[in-house]
């Protein structure tokens, strides 16, 4: 009887713990969107996550086909959305670009990913 009670209490505590403790930031959308062709050079790449991430620990690389870095500065938090990181860009010519990102979730776990987009006549 006592074991059943202890087991029940432990299960109740485990279920009542906030789900945030087990969640990781997920990339919800990007601007420009992945695998799209845009007509003009974007001024920045925007990465919108499911939760706020710390810009000081974010690594966002934007490269062209020749592996040249094209970010004009480090990632910073958007003034209008705390879940968004913005990366300023140099002017991009026609071609495909690779964006590789790595951020730290609120729970301390690193999350990473990559996507491409192209600049050129539509």
Please give a structural write-up.
- The chain is mainly beta and 122 residues long.
- The protein is built from 1 helix and 8 strands, in the order H-E-E-E-E-E-E-E-E.
- The protein has one helix spanning 2-16, and strands spanning 27-31, 37-38, 44-49, 59-63, 76-77, 84-88, 95-104, 110-119.
- The strands form 2 sheets. The protein has a 4-stranded antiparallel sheet with strand order 1-3-6-5, with no helix packed on it. The chain has a 4-stranded mixed sheet with strand order 2-8-7-4, with no helix packed on it.
- Strand 5 and strand 6 (84-88) form a beta hairpin.
- The termini are far apart.
Q: What is the H/E string?
A: HEEEEEEEE
- Shape verdict: elongated
Mean pLDDT: 87
What percent of the residues sit in helical stretches (DSSP H or I)?
Answer: 10-25%
Going across the biggest sheet, name each strand in turn.
1-3-6-5
Low-confidence stretches: 9-21
Number of DSSP-assigned strands:
8
Major sheet size, sense and barrel closure: 4 strands, antiparallel
Q: So how many helices?
A: 1
Spatial extent as radius of gyration:
20 Å
Looking at the chains present, what oligomeric state does this protein adopt? single chain
Q: What structural class results from the helix and strand content? A: mainly beta
């Amino acid at each position: 009887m006592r074991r059943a009670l202890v087991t029940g209490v432990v299960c109740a505590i485990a279920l009542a713990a906030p789900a945030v403790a087990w969640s990781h930031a997920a990339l919800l959308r990007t601007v420009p969107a992945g695998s799209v062709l845009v007509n003009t050079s974007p001024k920045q790449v925007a990465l919108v996550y499911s939760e706020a991430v710390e810009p000081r620990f974010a690594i966002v690389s934007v490269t062209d086909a020749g592996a040249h870095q094209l970010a004009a500065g480090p990632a910073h938090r958007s003034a209008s959305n705390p879940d968004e990181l913005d990366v300023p860009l140099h002017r991009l010519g026609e071609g495909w670009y690779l964006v590789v990102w790595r951020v730290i979730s609120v729970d301390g776990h690193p999350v990473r990913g990559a996507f491409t987009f192209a600049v050129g006549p539509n």
